[in-house]
Amino acid sequence: MRTTKLIAGAGIVALALAGCSSGGADPAASGGGEDDGQPITLVLGHAGSTTDPRQWAAEQFAERIEEATDGQVTVEIHSDSTLGTWEEMIDGLQIDSVDIVIESMLSVEAYTDLASVETAPFLYEDDEQFFEVWEGELGAEIKTAVTEASGYALLGNMYRGARQLTTKEPVTQLSDLQGLTIRTPSAQTMLDTWNALGARAEALPFNEVYSALESGVLDGQENPLDAILFNSIHEVAPNIGETSHMFANYHFIMWDDALQGLPEDVRTAITEVADEVGQEYTQNTVTNTEDYRAQLEEGGAVFTEITDRDAWIEATTPVVEGLPDQVQTWVEQIRAM
Predict the structure, then answer these.
(1) Cβ–Cβ contacts within 10 Å for residue 263, how many?
(2) φ, ψ at 31 (rounded to 5°)
(3) pLDDT score recorded for residue 37
(4) Above 90 in pLDDT, residue 305?
């Protein structure tokens, strides 16, 4: 089993590997092979700042997994995209340059279009509907299908809240959005959504968003309130249109072959700790959302209601109708809840 990872430089990691890796895990290890009990170091990366809730999740995961494995497993945490953009980190899971990435399901949409179920616009009415899906059998079915299709294991559910539109100038109706350059993640469905709404979607790395908004390269971006607050986006784009166009979880994402190559007791500990931290993260999000809003308003943000929401939904209907058949089935099931 891997015993060390050495980080070289401040950008993408260069690794010195000992033992097996995600590309060559010892099959015996998953059944309690000869590597059982050997020290394991896992590298965890995320794109948020050290004040972002993802850092709290990473620290909690590291602390609890070390305790659960009696010190066998330690976790190195790298925030602020120091291991690369989230796209690069997700790619890195396959080549063992990183072991765990805290990201949303949208980050694996490039590997399976089944993940577009998360990025389908205007799918949920509220938090309660979202929880009914992702804390139930349908959510488990979706995660299993996405893992089997993409190769990425999605561990834990860390509720992020609804994504809102943040712009330099106020947007209260669809006509205000026309021609604006809006940053989105690189998931194709999200790009299609904002283009369908009449904006110019731009898949810029998140660590470049603040400066791009400040310089005028971007007119806006979209994210849940925590990401807006803890990355100070409201300082350069203070108008928050309450679109609630997408709800999502973060997950502890691993390359599934690498996960299955770990000793069984370690796999179990990782899964259980991810679930435990996910539940607490979700509760924190629910508890803190109003506080996030208050802090944003104190920092100069102005919240505005979208007055023609039906027009936004109608404009994005072709995006939803263009999703894969299996995703269409899931969409129907979700909307029926």
Answers:
(1) 25
(2) -110, 15
(3) 83
(4) yes
Closest CA relative to residue 143, chosen from 23, 275, 47: 275
Q: Give me the chain's average pLDDT, please.
A: 90
Return d(Cα 6, Cα 15) in angstroms, integer.
5
Q: Domain ranges for the chain, please list them.
A: 27-329
Q: From 1.20.1740.10, 3.40.190.170, 3.40.50.300, 1.10.10.10, which CATH number describes the 27-329 domain?
A: 3.40.190.170
User: Using CA atoms, how far apart are residues 218 and 209, in angstroms rounded to an integer?
Assistant: 8
Distance CA(124)–CA(20), nearest Å, equals: 42
pLDDT (tens digit per residue) in 138-171: 999 999 999 999 999 999 999 999 999 999 999 9
Coil/strand/helix, residue 86: helix
Q: CA 52 to CA 59: how far, in whole Å?
A: 11
Cα distance between residue 127 and residue 244, in whole Å: 10
Task: Confirm if 160 and 249 have CB atoms less than 8 A apart.
Answer: yes
Task: Tell me the whole-structure pTM to 2 decimals.
Answer: 0.85
Q: HEC string of the chain? A: CCCCCCCCCCCCCCCCCCCCCCCCCCHHHHHCCCCCCCCEEEEEECCCCCCCHHHHHHHHHHHHHHHHCCCCEEEEEECCCCCCCHHHHHHHHHHCCCCEEEEEHHHHCCCCHHHHHHHCCCCCCCHHHHHHHHCCHHHHHHHHHHHHHHCEEEEEEEEEEEEEEEECCCCCCHHHHCCCEEECCCCHHHHHHHHHCCCEEECCCHHHHHHHHHHCCCCEEEECHHHHHHCCHHHCCCEEEEEEEEEEEEEEEEEHHHHHCCCHHHHHHHHHHHHHHHHHHHHHHHHHHHHHHHHHHHCCCEEECCCCHHHHHHHHHHHHHCCCHHHHHHHHHHHCC
Residue 124, both tokens:
């949920």
Quick: pLDDT tens for 204-240.
Answer: 988 899 999 999 999 999 999 999 999 999 999 999 9
Asked if the model's pLDDT at residue 3 lies above 60, the reply is no
Asked if 117 contacts 214 with a C-beta cutoff of 8 angstroms, the reply is: no
